[in-house]
């Protein structure tokens, strides 16, 4: 698995172009998350691709060529903080509910909905943590699950930032207004 981050223009069609590019390169996307950044005109994509370093390099280089992509970087070898979020609906009757509550506590998850025959559990953390919780919940009966996909950020002072937006050329405007 390779993790790439792309800063893109926050406008319609960009997600389609990025996923179509991966398809053309025959790279399977395992997870793709997109969300706004501190700048509403820019979105951040975290792409987890089922490929090797060479494939990731091809994807990164191809992403950089797309007009809407401001920055694309493979961050797989850097110090990362990665998280995923899952909602898991599990069968829970009166007999197994106390045992389920103990398991949920061990995984630092929380119950977000209670019904007579089920619980919905929210858990965030590493992919391994969520997969581990799923394994212990399977014997109770996992009824439904939704996952967000992985988001990643480089640790410490290692910042990923798109190039600054081109400032309006106010020097030319002020120079032309000074000409008489």
Q: Give helix and strand order, one letter per element, not per position.
A: EHEEHEEHEEHEEH
CATH topology of the largest domain: Alpha-Beta Plaits
Counting DSSP H or I runs of 4 or more residues, the number of helices is 5
The assigned structural class equals alpha+beta
CATH superfamily of the largest domain: ACT domain
Strand percentage, roughly? 35-45%
The total domain count is 2
Helix share, percent: 25-40%
Instruction: Please give the CATH class of the largest domain.
Output: Alpha Beta
Q: What is this structure's SSE topology?
A:
Elements: E1 2-9, H1 14-24, E2 28-36, E3 42-50, H2 53-65, E4 69-74, E5 80-91, H3 97-106, E6 110-115, E7 118-125, H4 127-137, E8 142-147, E9 151-154, H5 170-178
Antiparallel strand pairs: 1-3, 1-4, 2-3, 5-7, 5-8, 5-9, 6-7
Descriptive overview:
- The chain folds into two domains: 2-78, ACT domain (Alpha-Beta Plaits, 2-Layer Sandwich); 81-151, Alpha-Beta Plaits (2-Layer Sandwich).
- 30% of the residues lie in helices and 38% in strands.
- The protein is built from five helices and nine strands; from the N terminus they run βαββαββαββαββα.
- It has helices spanning 14-24, 53-65, 97-106, 127-137, 170-178; strands at residues 2-9, 28-36, 42-50, 69-74, 80-91, 110-115, 118-125, 142-147, 151-154.
- The N and C termini lie far apart (62 Å).
- The relative contact order is 0.18.
- The model is unreliable at 166-177 (pLDDT under 50).
């Amino acid at each position: 698995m390779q993790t790439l981050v792309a800063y893109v223009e926050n406008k319609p069609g960009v997600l389609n172009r990025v996923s179509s590019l991966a398809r053309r390169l025959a790279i399977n996307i395992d997870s793709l998350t997109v969300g706004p950044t501190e700048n509403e005109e820019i979105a951040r994509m975290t792409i987890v691709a089922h490929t090797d370093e060479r494939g990731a390099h091809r994807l990164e280089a191809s992403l950089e060529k797309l007009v809407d992509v401001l920055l694309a970087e493979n961050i797989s070898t850097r110090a990362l903080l990665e998280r995923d979020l899952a909602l898991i609906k599990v069968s829970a009757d009166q007999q197994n509910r106390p045992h389920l509550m103990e398991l949920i506590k061990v995984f630092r998850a929380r119950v977000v909905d209670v019904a007579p025959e089920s619980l919905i559990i929210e858990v965030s953390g590493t992919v391994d943590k969520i997969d581990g919780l799923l394994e212990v919940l399977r014997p109770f009966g996992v009824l439904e699950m939704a996952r967000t996909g992985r988001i990643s950020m480089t640790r410490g002072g290692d910042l990923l930032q798109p190039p600054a937006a081109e400032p309006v050329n106010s020097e030319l405007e002020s120079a032309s207004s000074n000409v008489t």
